[in-house]
């Protein structure tokens, strides 16, 4: 009788585990599908739509997050942009060291200047993310909303300018080494992802300021 009871408990436990796993999987897949669909529709207003979808989807998947509102979309777009900028900063640090040893002064200076610009880009995107969080607070007044919106626009715009300035170190039509071509590609990616984030933010602001019922934060 004891053995039968233990067997029954074991079977019940196994069933509950399978039921919970199945239910969780069923709710997770539709949630991811809705998030993917939301990203695809939202990215239609950006300049680089495919990149917008890829970068946001990859970041959301890695962080297991869900997007339910325009503000959340902008938040993750800025985080994705900051992540790309941080990754590029690490890469620039790595490629700059061999240039010093090889005494390639001109290439080193170009990478060094670019590193400074992208490093500032990371800081500016971090500030924009902090400002965006302020817009989600209930006690935020209309004056404060306009203030924070202006600050986000300033920080993201400055980050985009810094990335573009870095690209000036690698003009189009000029033959360059494989290293320079890789640097340019990575920085261009940062600039494009940041430009997309700024476009999504501008779209969010239009909805946020629209008359009628308040929009989801």
UniProtKB/TrEMBL annotation:
Range of residues in the leader sequence: 1-25
Record-level Gene Ontology MF annotations: enzyme inhibitor activity
Pectinesterase inhibitor domain mapped to chain residues: 34-200
Record key words, sorted: Signal
Pfam hit, one: PMEI
CDD domains in the cross-refs: PMEI-like_3 (cd15798)
Coiled coil: none
Family per record: Belongs to the PMEI family.
UniProt protein name: Pectinesterase inhibitor domain-containing protein
Organism, scientific name: Cannabis sativa
